[in-house]
Amino acid sequence: MGLKDKIEAGEFTILAEMEPPKGVDVSVMLSNAKRVKDGVDAFVIPEMGNAVMRMSSLGGAMVLQNEGLPTVFQVCCRDRNRLAIQGDLLAAHALGINTVMAVIGEDPSFGDHHQARSVNDVDLFELIKAIDRLNQGKDMAGIELAGAPDFLIGSTTEAGAKGKSTEVEMEEMMKRVEAGARFLITSPIFDPSLLDPYKKRIDLRKVAVIPTVMLLKSLGMARYLVRNLPHLHISETIIDRIARAPDKVRECVQIATETVRELKHQGFNGVYLSTLGWENKLPEIIEGI
Amino acid sequence: MIVADKKPIEEIIDYVKDYQSILVLGCNECVTVCEVGGKKEVGLLASALRMHFLQQGGEVNIGERTLERQCDHEYLEEIRDNIDHYEAVVSIACGVGVQFTAEKYQTKPVYPGVNTLFMGANEARGVWSERCQGCGQCILAISGGICPVSRCAKRILNGPCGGSTAGKCEISKDIPCGWQLIIDRLKALGRMDDYEKINPIKNWSTERAGGPRKVIREDLKL
Hints:
The structure holds two protein chains of two kinds.
Chain A: H1 3-9, E1 13-17, H2 27-36, E2 42-45, H3 57-65, E3 71-76, H4 82-94, E4 99-103, H5 124-135, E5 152-157, H6 166-179, E6 183-188, H7 196-201, E7 208-214, H8 219-228, H9 236-244, H10 248-265, E8 270-274, H11 282-287
Parallel strand pairs in A: 1-2, 1-8, 2-3, 3-4, 4-5, 5-6, 6-7, 7-8
Chain B: E1 2-6, H1 9-16, E2 21-27, H2 30-33, H3 39-55, E3 61-67, H4 73-76, E4 88-91, H5 95-104, E5 110-112, E6 114-124, E7 127-132, H6 148-151, E8 168-169, E9 172-176, H7 178-189, H8 192-196
C-alpha cells in the first residue's frame, strides 16, 4: 500500500528524512535510502533545510523515484515565486511524484548563503491552496491546465512546540486542512504529552498528524537545541539519560525509538524521522519500533 | 520623499462604515508634498465621508486633524487628549504613520487612507517617480548616480538585459531602461570604464530580505 492509500486509510506511516547531497554525488543518499526502504513508507526530501544550499528537493526526489523509492517532495515559499512553484509541481507530478509537502522555509540568515534574498511571493496557506487548485485543474491565475495533477498534500504544524498558543495553532492547523492539507508534520517532539491538547481537539481521521522524531546525535547537540531552539522541549530526563549513557549514540537512537513507539501507541497517524545527515542510523531506529 | 497615492473612497468607507465617530488624521510631511495626505486632503476626505454618511441617513462625527509628523512620538502625543472622542482613525499618512499611530493608541482601530508606494522624486507637477528602495547598501557610486535596484525592473546589477530596446524597458514602452540611463550617464561623465566592471552579487541581507530593519545610533540615544 502506497503512502497516499495508507494516509487515506488512517494507517500508521513512517516517513524518513533523506537529505540530498551538497553536490552531485548521490551515492550516500541512495545507499542510505535503499537500506531502509522496506521499513519506510516514503522519503521526505527537504528543500534546503535551514537554508543551507544543497540539491533541491525535486532533484533529490527524482533520484530516489528513479530507483523505485517513494518520495515526498517539499515545496517551499522561500526560494521560488508562484511561477516557479507551480512549474516545479507540474514537473514533479509528470515525473511520478504524487505527494508534496508545503513548507515556509527558514530565512536565508540561518543558512550558508546569508546574503540571499528570500522570495516569499506565496505564503504557506496560499501555497497549499495553490496545490489544491492545481489538483482541480487550474493554476493560480485561474487558467485551465492540460491535465491536472493528483497530489496528496501535506504541510507543517507547530503543534507541540513550546511557547505556542494551542488556540492559535489549532486555528492554523484547521486553516491548512481547509486549504487542502491531508497530513501535517509537527516540529520535533521529544515529549509526546505536549501533543495532548491537540489530540483531544483534532479529528485524526480528517487530517493525519505526523509528529517529527528527531535523532539527537550527542549530548552537545541536545544542550545546543535547548539553548538555541527554545520552541523544542527536551527534558532534563533526556539530557541526563544521554549524559549517563556509556554509549551516547546508542542511547540517542534508543530515545528516538522509544518516542516513535509511544507516538504509535497514542494513535498518531505516523512519524517523520529526522536524522539530520545521520540517515545511516535509520535502520536501528526502524528495527526497534 | 515617501510617495503615496489615494485609496479609492469606497475602500475607506468599507473600513469605517460601522463607526459613529471617525478621526481623519493627516501628516504635514511627505504626503503633504505629494498632495495625498496633508491638511487639504484631510478636509477633502472628511467631506467625502460626511456626504456618504449623510446620504446613508446616518449621523457620523468626522473629526479632522493634521499632525506635523505621524512618525514621531512627540507629534502623535498631540492627539492623546481627544483621540477617545473617536471610535476609529483613518490615517492618510504613509504606512509608517498609520502603524506608529496604531502602536501608540493600542485600543484604537487605525485604517490606512492612502496606498504608500515608494521613495521618489517630484519629476514635474503631478508626477512622482521612484528613485530608491532603501536596499541598505547604496551602490550609486558605481552606477553613475542612477540606481539599478530601483530603476531596473529586474533589479539587475550588470545590465542591461535583452529586454532593453531603444532605451525602453521590456515591461512598458513608457518606462526607460534603468541600465540605458546608467550607460548614458556614465558616458556623459566620461566614466565608461566603470561600466566595464562586473558588479558583484548583491548582499540582500541589508535589504528587506534580512527582516525588519533598525538603526540604533548610540551617540544620539538619551
